[in-house]
Design goal:
Length: 138
């Protein structure tokens, strides 16, 4: 599950393309103010058993292959994975401390809308690696 905020149409179109390729991907938009209320809603949507992965530039970087192995491990454990992408406010230190994993796509500051597309593409790529599909080239 990918939890996100409001997006322009070009982001929805890009995410939509990868969503078609990832049949078990669930996308949820969580709106609301203040930020703390929105975070509570995001975590409630994820559920208690889900692996909570926060996307933040301070997190751990992965190669495509190591992300594929991580995704495979979660799948073998039978756990849902909830990927949380912040908005322009980002996550607090408290939020990040409560994450099961903090994942960094880059040390660059990326717009949260573009992050949605990049995350979907990387999840799709990891899935194709695990399936032995030719999408990814090492």
């Amino acid at each position: 599950m990918l939890v996100f905020g409001k997006a322009p149409s070009w982001v929805d179109e890009g995410v939509g393309e990868y969503s078609k390729r990832i049949p078990n991907l669930s996308l949820e938009r969580i709106a609301g103010n203040p930020v703390r209320t929105r975070m509570r809603r995001m975590l409630t949507t994820c559920g208690n058993r889900a692996v909570r992965v926060y996307l933040d530039q301070s997190g751990k970087s992965f190669t495509s292959e190591s992300l594929a192995r991580r995704c495979s491990s979660w799948e073998q454990q039978g756990r849902d994975v909830c990927l949380l992408i912040g908005d322009d406010v980002g996550f607090s230190k408290e939020d990040l401390a409560n994450a099961d994993l903090v994942w960094s796509l880059s040390t660059l500051t990326l717009p949260h809308q573009l992050t949605r597309i990049l995350v979907c593409e990387q999840i799709y790529r990891a899935q194709t690696i695990n399936l032995g599909h030719g999408y990814h080239r090492s």
